[in-house]
Amino acid sequence: MPSKGIELLQTYRILCKLAKAIPSPAIREETWREIRQIYRDLYKRNQLEQLEEWSQSKLFWLKCTIPKQLWPRCVVDSSPKIDNVSKTFVFRNGKLEETMNSSPYEYKRTVDPDDLRRHHELLRRMRFGKVE
User: Fold this and answer.
1) Which residues neighbour 14 within 8 Å (Cβ) at sequence distance 6 or greater?
2) Which DSSP string do the residues of 88-112 spell out, in sequence order?
3) CA dist 45 to 11, 16, 21, 38, 42, Å?
4) Which residue of 16, 20, 68, 74 has the fewest C-beta atoms within 10 A of its own C-beta?
5) How far is CA 71 from CA 7, 76, 82, 115, 117, in A?
6) pLDDT per residue over 102-111, tens digit each?
7) Dihedral angle sign, alpha carbons of residues 14, 15, 19, 20
8) What does pTM read for this prediction?
9) Please, which residues have CB within 8 angstroms of residue 54's CB and are 6 or more apart in sequence?
10) Where are the domains of the chain?
11) For 73-84, b where at least 16 C-beta lie within 10 A, e where not — what string?
């Protein structure tokens, strides 16, 4: 596991790259100078906890203000990856259970076949979906 100093330097690099992606030149330069100055001051004073809090809040602010299309590749690649696993919670037998591979068509297994047949008859009788 990397030390806190190495993580802060990686965050510093990401913040600098995000600051360079700000569309407005005046705000871009001001933000970049602010990041450099605060990192230098707090890192020299060895106030790593304050520096970490500030850098996380600044990172959040930059991600909110910069359009996602302008984000540098390092920011896009650093976001946590989810392997298309969606968690679905189902209430069964009075308990809340988590299911990993839930199909959106799972409800068909619990529908009464007579109710489904009656529903299809009504749709057909109303000519739902048919154009004449």
Assistant:
1) 59, 72, 74, 75, 78
2) EEEEETTEEEEESS--TTGGGGTS-
3) 18, 21, 29, 11, 5
4) 68
5) 20, 7, 19, 52, 52
6) 555 555 466 7
7) negative
8) 0.51
9) 38, 42
10) 4-78, 88-125
11) eebeeeeeeeee
Tell the residue number behind the tokens 């076949």, with chain if given. Answer: 113
Q: Are 89 and 97 in contact (CB under 8 A)?
A: yes
Query: What is the pLDDT tens value at each position of the chain, 132 positions in all?
Result: 457 777 888 888 888 888 888 888 888 899 889 988 988 888 788 888 888 888 888 888 888 888 777 777 666 555 444 445 456 677 778 787 777 655 555 554 667 788 888 988 888 888 877 654
Q: Which two tokens stand for residue 43?
A: 């890192």
Residue 91's DSSP bridge partners are 96
Residue with tokens 């047949």: 117
- Residue 28 burial (CB < 10 Å; 0-12/13-18/19+)? middle
